[in-house]
Amino acid sequence: MSLFTPTHWDVDDDLVMNHLINDDRSHGGHAGVMPRPERLSYGSDAAIELGLRPMEGIGVDDLVQPDDFEEVIEECHAKKRFPMYHMEDSGFFDNWTQDGLNYCWTWAMTATLMANRLMEGLPPVALAPTSLGWTVNWRNSGGYLTETIAAAKSHGIAPLSAVDHIHSRNPNKFDDDWEEQALENRVLEWWDGPVSKDIRQVQYMLTMLANGKPLYVAYNWWSHALTNVGLNYNPRARHKVDVLAFNSHGDGLITMEGSRGLPDEYYGIRSTSLPRNKG
Amino acid sequence: MRTQIISFLALAILVASTQGAEDITPRAVGVGDTLSITGPSDPVKVSEGAWLKIEGLTLEEIKQAKKANLFDLTVFPLDDVRVHASYDWLNDNLELSFKAKKPGKYLVKMHLVRNGKLERAATVVKVGGDVPPDPIDPPDPTDGPRQVLFIVESSELPSLTRPQQGILSSLTLRKELAKAGHVLLGIHDKDSSGVDGVPDHLKKWFEAAGGKKLPCLLIAPKDGGTIVSHPMPADEEGFWGLIGGKP
Q: How far apart are CA B1 and CA B8, in angstroms?
């Protein structure tokens, strides 16, 4: 099965192919994420029922304007407003790796929720990505972001302390009450980003990031899910930005340049469950 | 008996005089008129009201002149001055109530065209004494380290100003807050909820934000106590002002 679906070839795409070939071993040779299902398409009733609120509900005047990209991005770095800074400061994301499992869809979801907790001013919490393994029957399999979103809403993600180790797919070795513990860490509602692969998409992404919202994202060409955690201004880039993403291959923060940096799905958390204890 | 305030209130056409700043001596009253404005002979105190009597002019005449745009009332300097016109029907007098917030000399001048002739009247009101302090918001009922929590409406975050968004997302600010001994409890969407509703330790905070415009900044003593709600500060300076000062 192909790791990627080539669509539009940029000058950067040869580099992309080389990266993917070299990356094949860490992926285990299987697709990490599948494209968003049609029935849960942007703005559909099913998507809204899932808690996905279209970002197009944001007034156009409230979006960061292209002329302000450079200034806003510079300020977000200078004042450490982007989620990437909060994540680094917490120390909870060191050596963050799915380690060969085809679980990027849950590693990215888990990183996004953990980062969002930090942005909410809550104490850092380590969560267990494999606690969502039930959605694929505990197989070593790729997944859909939308299905993961549904699972994070209904069941939540267990704390890392509730599982035997971070790569375990054996729930029999988890704490007896791991499911109840997972309910403490649910995502109730999301911003759903419209995909247009142009400056307008950058506006939506930057507006979210500048408001402290890490983005749960998928790249169809890579069959991979990550967390977008910041942007760099790049006047030479087609859409004026390079995307900063937190990756689950042990390489941490990566820079995605060119058109490949704009994701095919992107979601920002609007509300989460509140922890029972002060922490 | 003082009067009803009538609708012709000349405040509507008060303009700042362009007269030279140094000399505010009233000019001589125009020929053929008996128009006059008489004020208190002794200085009045800051923010103390004074009555100025207008004579030689009837209510009907002033109405007609105003309607024809032939009437002007000027106060110089105008900053922090309040002038209110009224008609004392019992004594058939036109009056001005005058109040200034700063000490100094104030020229009150009236121009009127009546029967084709320009008439003027003026007086100087002397205001003396210390400037009373501006009223200030009552301070939070505590000193020392605080707990801080924001309740927001996530859908409206993009409509906040950039400085306000910065307050909510800046790691640098949070570090400064912690360094000063304060505790950020959280930034929560109003619809956030726990397994059994709003957790006990946050209930009072959410209640304090009830009915308030969002985002709402809630502050309480670090060791517990009254939770005080504030509108979202305009910027970091405003935020630190509410917390008790930047370290």
A: 20
